[in-house]
Amino acid sequence: MTGVPLSWYLILSALLFALGVAGFLFRRNIITVFMSIELMLNAVNLSFVAFSYQLKQVNGHIFTFFVMVVAAAEAAVGLAIILTVFKNRETLNVDEVNSLKN
Amino acid sequence: MPASLWPSWAEMLRFLPEIILTVAGTLIMMLEPVLGSRSRRGLGQFALAGLSAALAAAVVADGSPGPAFSNMLVVDGFATFFRVLVLAVGILTVCSSYPYLNREGASSGEYWALLLFSITGQCVMASANELIMVFIGIEISSISSYVLAGYLRDDKRANEAALKYFLLGSFATAFLLYGIALVYGAAKSTNLAVVRAAVEKGEAPLLLVGIAAALMFVGFAFKVSGAPFQMWAPDVYQGAPAPVSAFLSAGPKAAAFAVFLRVFMTAFQGVSDRWAPVVWISALLSMSIGNFAALRQSNLKRMLAYSSIAHAGYVLVAMAARSQSGSAAVMFYLAAYALMNMGAFAVVAHVAGKGERYVEIQDLAGLAQRQPLTAAALAVFLLSLIGVPLTGGFFGKFYIFKAALESRLIWLAVLGLLNSAVAAYYYLRILVVMYMEEPGEVTNGLGPLPLGLKAALAMPVVGLLVLGIFPSGLLDYAVKSAKFW
To answer: Which of A90, B58, B102, B451 is deepest in the core (most CB within 10 A)?
Structure first.
């Protein structure tokens, strides 16, 4: 790995993942929350690619493709669910989706 | 690497249940547009046939155990056990969904297709031998389940359940995936056997393995609804259609426990002294939170959801034992639990009526006078959930606490038993309402039990009584197959 050591990639990946977690926990718009999850998945992809490069294997690269495909499927389903929620409630605020309780 | 890219016939045979389910699901989606509205009703029966064929295939595949597809999957006794379990859960789900969907006027092909795809994912999870297969299996199962939870798309509650399930489920998956990435970096492979060897020989950096195990624990704990990651379960089980809640509390949960157990008993076996205390705490928290929250519920589905958190706690007790008998107890308990919970939710689906208006405990008042057989079936399920002798639930709990005592987890076993006593209170409350009170408006207006629900009640009752009177057959199989190399 010319110039940039593995640890930098891992730290960047951890930071991105933490940003995703923070976004998931603190943002209130459903779409933003959803994007935070995608950010977490992409942070993991960065780790996979960095490890894969370090280990001189292709496995990690292939894993990222699996992850991307799954993320795309998840996005399709997730956006559809968000759309039905919006149709029924006309809000995209997580806190206002709270009819289930006693 | 094998020389030939084309998998051998033996490998195809080992993968046959998944192939059958995928083909059946795809066929349903292709057939639906070309069928008339009358023959579309037959798609449910078609799904049932597909599940039965897959069940037979899973049993046949057990005859030729071994790895498949370059060690990505492995068929062993453990995989067969959970495959058969999730397929049986699928059959029960079809039986209870069929009349439910007709009543709601929401019968359509994609429900069956999604159900089959979800079970495909769970079968993959059961036989996964690679962390990437674990991930893919979980996602196949989860993505279909998200849609199933929100299947009644004009229902506000179902929407909300689907949204919460989706957001928290994907959040958990991201943690799991991050753990997998770190394992890959630490052990240079994602194959469970290779990871195990690397961890045991100390080749993998301990810090990285520790963080990876912690992240994967978070992911799995979410999927099995173990504390402190249980908060999605009550909302999802309450909001989703009753047969789907039943399915979610039995199928995906059992499959998630299967991978949880397999990954932690193989890949992280070398560091089991470190993760055992975490499982210990999670078990205690799940039991206590689940049982004490269930005490205060008046909504049946929500109460069953909290009780399912508590039951996840009991299973975690057996996991904390870290022994072969502990793993066997996990398997036995999950089988009994799937039967009793599926049955209890089937009764809820019946009583709830169109649009699920009647889901309060009080709505069951006098059920025993109006429909004695339904009430008797629910009584068997509740007694089994309590853990009364002669039911499968009793031996499930017995083996769990026996395994815990053998591993010297005396405090955990004692606290678990106290928890079971607390649980008895809220289950008995339902029995009292059902048997001691006069029939109310809801039970008086109750229609006859449809055929599908009859099957969905009769099969678990028989299963639980068989497990309660002759538990040794299943337990012997579980003990024999709870070995991880």
So the answer is: B58
Residue ranges of domains in chain A:
6-97
Residue A3 Cα, gap to closest chain B Cα (Å): 20
Pick the CATH number of A6-97 from 1.10.287.3510, 1.10.240.10, 1.10.10.10, 1.10.390.10: 1.10.287.3510
Q: Please tell me the distance from the alpha carbon of residue B57 to that of residue B83, in angstroms, as a whole number.
A: 10
Could you read off the pLDDT of B183-233 as tens digits, one per residue? 999 998 899 999 999 998 888 888 999 999 999 999 999 999 998 999 999
Reported ipTM: the value is 0.95
| Chain A: closest CA distance from residue B481 (Å) | 30
Mean of the per-residue pLDDT values for chain B?
A: 91
Residues in chain B where the model's pLDDT stays below 50? 1
Encode pLDDT of A52-97 as tens digits. 998 988 888 999 999 999 999 999 999 999 999 999 888 888 888 8
Task: Report the residue of B153, B163, B222, B360 to disrupt the A interface, i.e. the one with the largest count of A CBs within 10 Å.
Answer: B163
CA distance B256 to chain A (A): 18
Annotate B327-396 with DSSP letters as a single string. HHHHHHHHHHHHHHHHHHHHHHHHHHTTTT---BGGGGTTHHHH-HHHHHHHHHHHHHHHT-TTSHHHHH
From chain B, the residues in CB contact with A33 under 8 A are 167
User: Which residue in the block uniquely carries the two structure tokens 């005859």?
Assistant: B63
Task: Report the residue of B1, B132, B139, B178 to disrupt the A interface, i.e. the one with the largest count of A CBs within 10 Å.
Answer: B178
